[in-house]
């Protein structure tokens, strides 16, 4: 049963659930446009500040690609099924070394068992709240590339040592790794990106403004996103308490929370509602007087304070 049916009528859900190919194309063009725009900005005005800005924007839009792959996993990115599958794999997942079918299988289990012992994402939320020192260490490992290198090495080892043998692997392992042939398709997508940069005379851009953000800024904002969604919330089956929506301003949406990913409580209530309609769903729930019962944070600063509130 869709959790949102306890609070919304079938007509209200239906009105919010329509998909659009035009929206799907627009979101992908926006995401890749920001990526190439940030790279172009650095090449036009090469300096440390424009380089840092490009790394942050590209890393944030790599998270954007992950979010659009998440949309495709719910068949909500495009109305046309084959477009949803093809774009979700080749234009969203493969470039960031992710696999849509594996992710969908893993992620739907998360929706079914949210914040219970059977939730495969519980490993991401259970450590919170933690101490400020512990959170700081995690974020430092992310931004310095330590987390990214460790995860990518694990992907390669899983693909070529465990391909076809997943016995003993956790759900989290399976979400981050996949069989050798699938990994090779992710490599192919990145070869195409590398060739594009080479064709315009800047082959090193793939290393500096694609791989570097993927290993650093992307990992940090991915962690912050995970914390915001389920970290330091109720260990409960109440969908208004076990998931958090974070109200985000323009800069947070640019650098931390692209494509309405901050409306996570609403997404869990009706997971097939396209992301661009989640603000409307949020407003509808508020109008029904549910605001006081919903877990809502006013910005990612508040989320990180809640997630690091443990004193020892």
TrEMBL record:
One of its GO terms (biological process) is ceramide biosynthetic process. Residues 48-288 form the Fatty acid desaturase domain. One of its GO terms (molecular function) is sphingolipid delta-4 desaturase activity. Keywords: Membrane, Transmembrane, Transmembrane helix. InterPro entries: FA_desaturase_dom (IPR005804). It comes from the Bacteria. The chain crosses the membrane at residues 21-45, 51-69, 182-200. One of its GO terms (cellular component) is membrane. This is Fatty acid desaturase.
């Amino acid at each position: 049963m869709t959790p949102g049916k306890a609070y919304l009528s079938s007509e209200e859900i239906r009105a919010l659930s329509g998909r659009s190919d035009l929206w799907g194309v627009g979101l992908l063009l926006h995401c890749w446009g920001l990526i190439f725009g940030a790279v172009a900005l650095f090449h036009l005005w090469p300096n440390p500040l424009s380089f840092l800005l490009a790394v942050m924007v590209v890393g944030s839009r790599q998270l954007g690609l992950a979010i659009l792959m998440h949309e495709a996993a719910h068949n909500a990115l495009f109305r046309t099924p084959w477009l949803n599958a093809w774009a979700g794999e080749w234009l969203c997942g493969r470039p960031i070394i992710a696999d849509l079918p594996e992710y969908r299988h893993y992620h739907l289990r998360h929706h079914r068992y949210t914040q219970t012992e059977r939730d495969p994402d519980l490993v991401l939320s259970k450590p919170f709240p933690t101490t400020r020192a512990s959170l700081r260490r995690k974020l430092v490992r992310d931004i310095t590339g330590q987390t990214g290198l460790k995860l990518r090495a694990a992907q390669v080892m899983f693909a070529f040592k465990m391909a076809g043998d997943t016995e003993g692997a956790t759900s989290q392992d399976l979400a981050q790794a996949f069989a050798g042939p699938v990994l090779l398709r992710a490599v192919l997508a990145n070869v195409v990106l590398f060739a594009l940069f080479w064709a315009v005379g800047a082959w090193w851009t793939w290393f500096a403004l694609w791989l570097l953000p993927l290993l650093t800024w992307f990992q940090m904002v991915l962690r912050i996103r995970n914390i915001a969604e389920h970290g330091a919330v109720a260990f409960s089956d109440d969908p208004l308490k076990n998931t958090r929506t974070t109200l985000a301003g323009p800069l947070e949406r640019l650098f931390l929370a692209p494509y309405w990913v901050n409306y996570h409580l609403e997404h869990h209530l009706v997971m097939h509602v396209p992301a661009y309609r989640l603000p409307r769903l949020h407003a509808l729930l508020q109008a029904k007087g549910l605001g006081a019962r919903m877990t809502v944070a006013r910005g990612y600063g508040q989320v990180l304070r809640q997630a690091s509130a443990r004193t020892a």
